[in-house]
Amino acid sequence: MWFKSTEGTQLKDNMSTGSSNTSRFGKIFQIRWKEALGNKECPYLYRWTLVLFGYSIRLHHWVKSDDRRYFHDHSCDLISMIIWGTYKNVTPDGAFQARAWRPRKMKADVRHYLDIPKEGAWTIIFCGRPYKKWGFYVNDHMWRPLRYFSKFGIIQTADYQ
């Protein structure tokens, strides 16, 4: 099995086979532990992930908001539920206040971003199998994350909320 440390390096235990996280075994079962997303100095999100046969359960500790410059979508359909805190889910059609313990089903192609308050939030997400590539929608054209962040940079600095 594969574990990802908080520093983002992969650690392999002596039970696993294969040479990378994309091995056959890695596609069947993975545990990712406290991945920090965003700037290394001030992540906007910490994520714990369990992957089984392509499906995943994710625990997110939101510290800052998603990138608000452009909407993004997801690679799979999902069910998300806040287990502590609150946030605004902002879509091209408007924003709504999400509240704790109210599950929300979302299709992969829904464009949105999350506006997280200073208190942060914790969510649990049940993800279906990925069936498409995800990205940011810049002037109605989908940009993959690497291209997007290479062009625009990561904005979640220490003073970003």
Regions with little confidence, pLDDT below 50 for 5+ residues: 1-22
Assign the CATH architecture: Sandwich
CATH evolutionary superfamily:
Jelly Rolls
Give the class from helix and strand content and strand pairing: mainly beta
The CATH top-level class label = Mainly Beta
Computed over alpha carbons, the radius of gyration is 16 Å
Task: Please summarize the sheet with the most strands.
Answer: 6 strands, antiparallel
Strands of the largest sheet, in order across it? 3-4-5-11-6-9
Order of helices and strands: EEHEEEEEEEEEEEH
Instruction: Tell me the helix content.
Output: under 10%
Can you walk me through this structure?
- This protein has 161 residues and is mostly beta strands.
- The chain has one domain (2-152): Sandwich (Jelly Rolls), CATH 2.60.120.
- The protein is 8% helix and 44% strand.
- The protein is built from two helices and 13 strands.
- The chain has helices spanning 24-28, 145-152, and strands at 2-4, 10-12, 29-38, 43-52, 55-62, 78-85, 87-91, 94-98, 104-106, 113-115, 121-127, 136-138, 141-143.
- It has a six-stranded antiparallel beta sheet with strand order 3-4-5-11-6-9.
- The protein starts with a strand and ends in a 9-residue tail after the last helix.
- Mean pLDDT is 86; it is low at 1-22.
